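Troubleshooting entry. The earlier prediction with pyridoxal-5'-phosphate gave an output that would not parse, so I re-checked the input for stray whitespace and re-submitted. Clean input:
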Amino acid sequence: MSSNQSWINRDLAVLWHPCSQMKDHETLPPIPIARGEGAWLTDFDGNRYLDAIGSWWVNLFGHANPHINARIKAQLDQLEHVILAGFSHAPVVELAERLVQLTPPELTRVFFTDNGSSGIEAALKMSFHYWRNMGQPNKTRFIALEHSYHGETLGALGVGNISIFTETYAPLITPALVAPSPDCRQALPDEPCAAVTERALLSLRAMLEQHAADVAAVIIEPIVQCAAGMRMHEPAYLSGLRNLCDEFNVHFIADEIAVGFGRTGTLFACEQAAITPDILCLSKGITGGYLPLCAVLATEKIYQAFYCDAPASRAFLHSHSYTGNPLACAAAIATLDLFEQENVIGRNRVRGAMIDELLVPFNHHAHLAHVRRRGMIVAMDLVGTNGQPYVRSDRRGHRAYRYALDHGVLLRPLGDTLYWMPPYTLTDDEWRHLADVTWGAVQAASAEH
Ligand SMILES: *Cc1c(COP(=O)(O)O)cnc(C)c1O
């Protein structure tokens, strides 16, 4: 029995894996990973996989990054954890200072939670609670976008609009109002994306005209709706949304959990529209992919609405046991160091031009549509000969997944959408390897049997 096999046996005897039908593992067992280095993962039999999805969109600077490792090790000998209610420590203060420095000047306050979903819960509660403290307790609803994803907890599912995640739990969920997605792929032939943007904003305006008095906030994943299949929109949508939120007196919550930290080509996606959200959620890449942490940034105006001598009910009593964990903060500080020291954003911009060259043949492939890129997110959709989507039961994306694994690349298509979201540290050769294997995966997935 191989080393992999013995680990798989032990795994399947005790684990319940996330986001999985466990019975699928009868034919495709989980892959046990023994080591990570740079963009590569190695299993217990010595097979290597290029991590083209940054281990679920979290890894920015490679596995076992020496700088991040060293910073966490140093912190470990100082302080592993301490309660953050009524106490404080050096890494959490430094991280908060640096996040405030890096984000627009209006965002002055940092609230920490343990992961993305819990950050969304905090953001929603904070917005609702702000209006309540301001004497507008009727503002209890949220507007989310079609195809939105904001995490898996019940509050986050309420502002989510991907049926496979929400449908089953509908009786438990308070649903948001849903405005159209500004996904550029909806443009009619010969129509620029600006037309899609305009239509989406008009619908949102109509919704706000009717409901603003009851709405606390609009929540959005700026520039790329990742989980729903890397749906990309124009920065102009964000500017339009900012104006509407101001006009109708509702908060703008930017969920940059997936797109923050350089993913869309700027450090934060909102920069592309030069706008400031009222609440900004950051997670995933914040620790370079090492440890769970979420930062919820808010404006001074929101913060001040909670600050008073009055009873506890005006204060924001949200908490999680590991809030502001020092090891996670240390990993985040090391990650910010790397952005500072290495001009990552500039280097990625140059890299982007090279990626576009790699994509030229993909643009002409008969079985691909909407080959698209925003910064360091690339996506493409598998389609049939007539350009129509495949039937779901064909599981073409899954075929691509299997092909890529057999050829040493970890792709994890979203349905029939293949995407790249690797660490920023890939070499030219690794990028070419990724493109080659993806090409083979497209061929394998689109072949008729
Ligand atoms: C991943 C994700 C979340 C949830 O974060 P978790 O840490 O997985 O709970 C929320 N919003 C967006 C946009 C995400 O991509």
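This one parsed fine. The chain has a mean pLDDT of 97.
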